[in-house]
Amino acid sequence: MIEIIPAIDLINGKCVRLSQGCYETRTEYQIDPIEVAKEIESYGIRRIHIVDLDGAASHHVVNYRILEQIASRTSLIIDFGGGVKSESDLNIALENGAQMVTIGSLAAKEPQTVKAWMEKYGNHHFILGADVKDNCIAINGWKETTPTQLIPFLESYINSGMEKILCTDISKDGMLEGPSLSLYRGILKHFPDIYLIASGGVSSIDDIYQLEEAGIPAVVFGKALYEGKITLKELSRFTS
């Protein structure tokens, strides 16, 4: 069964969603992220994905106090991303309740640093963030597209022991137009044993069923939940 991972994206400590990674298009939701996390947990969901968008834009972790409050007030498994650019940032995330940290920009720019962390802290603490635009890796809050191609990028880390990949199709993210099934199928064709987390475009419960039918291990989504296109009650089918 596909693993359901609701996303909580944070700017100034508030829940937001972007469209295609553009900060100028953000929608701010008048809901407390701690209360959101508690409600998610009440429906039997066991894991969330927290994105520190302030951190992604400013190159260091910013919203760690929200992370700590969610970790202390729920028993959710938390993976945290955004702004982890140094070992100090990594420790801040882990010490404030993240069980796993998603590394994206730094993984593209300083692979030896990230691979050294994997050896030091253990592979189980890391998720490789692969944010994709036109089959190339994007970094720095998706503001910059690198020439690095997706499959060689993944292969380098998988060969070094990375087991979990969070892949976001930027063109789909926040657009509520359906996920990039062909992208995820292509990744699994190359790397059938990885734990692939699909991200971007989920607009309905049917999209989640399609991802499950395609054999995708997990899915992250946020906007469809916040805008009522998917309800937590509907997701209970995936939590038993």
Structural write-up:
- The protein is built from 11 helices and 12 strands.
- It has 240 residues and is an alpha/beta fold.
- It has an 8-stranded parallel β-barrel, surrounded by 6 helices.
- Strand 7 (126-133) and strand 8 form a beta hairpin.
- Helix 1 runs parallel beside helix 3 (64-73).
- The N and C termini lie close together (9 Å).
Write the layout of secondary structure elements.
Layout: E1 3-11, E2 14-19, E3 22-29, H1 33-42, E4 47-52, H2 53-58, H3 64-73, E5 77-81, H4 87-95, E6 100-103, H5 105-109, H6 111-121, E7 126-133, E8 136-139, E9 144-149, H7 150-159, E10 164-169, H8 181-190, E11 195-199, H9 205-213, E12 218-221, H10 223-226, H11 232-235
Parallel strand pairs: 1-4, 1-12, 4-5, 5-6, 6-7, 7-10, 10-11, 11-12
Antiparallel strand pairs: 1-2, 2-3, 7-8, 8-9
Helix pairs in contact: 1-3
Using only C-alpha atoms, the radius of gyration works out to: 16 Å
Distance between the termini: 9 Å
The strand order across the widest sheet is 1-4-5-6-7-10-11-12
Which H/E pattern describes the elements?
EEEHEHHEHEHHEEEHEHEHEHH
Number of helices: 11
Secondary structure tally: strands = 12
Give the uncertain stretches in residue-range form.
none
* Global morphology: globular
In terms of DSSP E residues, the strand content is 25-35%
Mean pLDDT across all amino acids:
91
